């Protein structure tokens, strides 16, 4: 119970109520002491009035009046004359004098605390004003032990009363916390547990019902989160099913297109001028279709294998890519430039790094070929303090805004007509496998630059 929210509220409430009662107790005990002394003064005044009524009181009656008043003697001042009205032997010296006529609240509290914690019986003088204007002042001499005993008795009663009030208040607060906080919180937790068991089931989404503003805001935030997550899970499931279907279709279609490629060799040998003119375009179309199927199958794998990191001479990798792409050129209007420093080595998987740079260079080549404008493709690199930065630049016309929005999204980031947009998605995935990132650094009429950042981490040479 102590570890629950309501249990801790119960304990804290009891403690705070007791603390508040302690703060109230100090002035209340001072007030009790003042009332006690004023009562003694009033009794002494009544006894002195009895003496004024009859000057010849017997000693026994005088002693009885003093005992009833709880004092040793009474001095009454009337008409500027101090008169010793009643007197009896004082068993000791007067240790202190308290004047209640001009005592401030702080003085009364100080004297009460001192009296409460001072053991023993003392003789004190108390001065006050007579009630009903029966004189200028009244002064009595009395013992402190009865006063201290009465203060202790009052304090014990206050303590038990405070304890009862604290327990009742804490219990009521305990019930209120359970009703207004604990129960709604348990309801939210129950919804979260039920949703965790079946996140795809929309029936597990919480329905806000709390009356407390803060709890209702929490329920609404949880409802929004669960709704978006359920939608994302359903979309992911549909994409997985679609990917599986596309992979199967691409596999069979690749086999069919591969067979068609074999027939194109014989078609190219035809003597018909029309066939000889159309055959290269047919071969090119089939080749692109096969390439698309292979890219789709490659992306449809569960995941790329983890990179095998080793130290790679980057200029050699870039040169292999540029040499491969130069063989695929339809014209000589595109120039390939390798600006990677000879001595530069990077920590990467050589095969995966080749694929990343190949995708970027191929996209740049195809973009330049579409424009039929002479251009240049450059691979450059820089060894920075925390990362190796590889840039692939072209002098094309830049990427259209639509392509920039979904640049690294599969099947949506294609730039050229007929492309599937898988090249950049695969390249980005491979770079992330190295702990790096693939960025579009700049694009526009002056050209496009992609940057590959490979972190150095804790690698030492």
UniProtKB/TrEMBL annotation:
Transmembrane segments: 6-30, 158-181
PROSITE patterns: HIS_KIN
Keyword Membrane: yes
Gene3D superfamilies: 1.10.287.130, Histidine kinase-like ATPase, C-terminal domain
Sections of the chain in a coiled coil: 215-242
Domain Histidine kinase span(s) in chain numbering: 248-458
EC number: 2.7.13.3
Molecular function terms from GO: kinase activity
Signal peptide: none
Catalytic activity line of the entry: ATP + protein L-histidine = ADP + protein N-phospho-L-histidine
Keywords, sorted A to Z: ATP-binding, Coiled coil, Kinase, Membrane, Nucleotide-binding, Phosphoprotein, Transferase, Transmembrane, Transmembrane helix, Two-component regulatory system
InterPro entries, alphabetized: HATPase_C_sf (IPR036890), HATPase_dom (IPR003594), His_kinase_dom (IPR005467), HisK_dim/P_dom (IPR003661), HisK_dim/P_sf (IPR036097), Sig_transdc_His_kin-like_C (IPR004358)
Protein name: histidine kinase
